[in-house]
Design goal:
Number of domains: 1
Strand content: 5-15%
CATH architecture: Alpha-Beta Barrel
Helix content: 25-40%
Structural class: alpha/beta
Shape: globular
Length: about 325
């Protein structure tokens, strides 16, 4: 079991600096203060099963707006209308929660495209686009971002540098109107800790911590060997509002991962599996599981303890519509 500093203990990692010029927790902007007065109680909200969204990249690629190897987050400024239409399609499909087009909207994710100086702006734009897409509905907007793509335990970078980058992105998401923050697709528990710490340095919004479990004999460990129990322990120690799993596997394996999470936490569980395992043909990656087959796992996921259910790679609006049908049939 991994051990992280408890509240009040001194961390062995340096405190992240703020790199976007905005006030820290001791001097928040007016928007941040307003958001804090309306903080979503995630545990209460999750008392009924909530339908989340699919992904932006899948739909944008299908529409020919995102070529392989291009930066999806750049479209937040280059083509915000297209991004907004994808977000709105998930609202129309029945999502209770949509996320932001900001998976790699941090300095590390944007550096290969020479966009690292726009990290905060692209994150804020992502949140504003999503907030506009949900106008007139009860759908919530959760801002999200993923890992750096580096292995933190090798000390390739200073932890303070990582925290500062994550804080910059979180600040942008908060400024854009996000109602919660999702740390998604993480593979290393240490990096989840740094990301959670960074978010906490800029806001008090609920934070969902979600890892990609896809390794080990039963595919319930991360690439770095972390388990659902490890994630639950970190969440309990450091005040995450929910735990979860996304990407990595299809909904069949996600049922087992959900069971393992539920056995180790009473927090809400966030589940967004892929549409099956990827297939590679003619240089193109696709995910074979259609909306009906995907939706056939919704009830088993609910039985296993999932509170939020959506889709990751390969999942579009029709997958979400089918999830809504199953959840709606339960009277929710």
């Amino acid at each position: 079991m991994h051990r992280f500093p408890a509240a009040g203990e001194t961390s062995r990692w340096p405190v992240a600096c703020r790199c976007d010029g905005r006030p820290n927790r001791q001097g928040r902007t007016g928007l941040q203060e307003e958001m804090n007065t309306m903080t979503l109680d995630l545990k209460t909200y999750a008392k009924q099963v909530r339908v989340t969204d699919g992904v932006f990249g899948t739909v944008l690629q299908e529409q020919g707006l995102l070529a392989p190897g291009r930066c999806a987050e750049a479209l937040n400024s280059e083509n915000p209308v297209a991004v907004g239409l994808v977000a709105h399609s998930y609202v129309q499909a029945g999502a209770d929660v949509i996320m932001t087009n900001s998976l790699m909207a941090h300095r590390f994710g944007l550096e290969p495209y020479d966009l690292e100086e726009q990290a905060g702006e692209l994150a804020e734009a992502a949140a504003r686009i999503a907030c506009k897409a949900v106008e007139g509905s009860e759908t919530k907007v959760f801002g999200s971002f993923g890992p750096t793509g580096k292995i933190v335990m090798t000390c390739e970078m200073e932890s303070g540098e990582i925290e500062a980058a994550f804080a910059e992105t979180a600040s942008g998401l908060v400024a854009g109107g996000a109602q919660a923050i999702v740390l998604e697709t993480f593979n290393e528990l240490t990096e989840v800790y740094l990301a959670l710490k960074a978010v906490r340095s800029v806001c008090d919004l609920p934070v969902i911590v979600s890892m990609a479990f896809a390794y080990g004999p039963d595919k319930t460990a991360t690439m770095m060997g972390n388990t659902p129990a490890d994630l639950s322990a970190l969440a309990a120690t450091h005040g995450a509002a929910a735990v979860g799993a996304n990407c990595g596997v299809g909904p069949d394996v996600a049922v087992k991962i959900t069971e393992l999470l539920r056995a180790t936490t009473d927090l809400p569980i966030w589940i967004k599996p892929n549409a099956g395992l990827p297939e590679f043909k003619d240089g193109v990656t696709s995910f074979p599981m259609g909306p009906d087959e995907f939706a056939s796992y919704v009830q088993p996921l609910i039985d296993a303890g999932a509170n939020f259910i959506g889709g990751c790679c390969g999942c579009g609006p029709e997958h979400i519509r089918k999830i809504r049908d199953v959840v709606g049939a339960r009277g929710q």
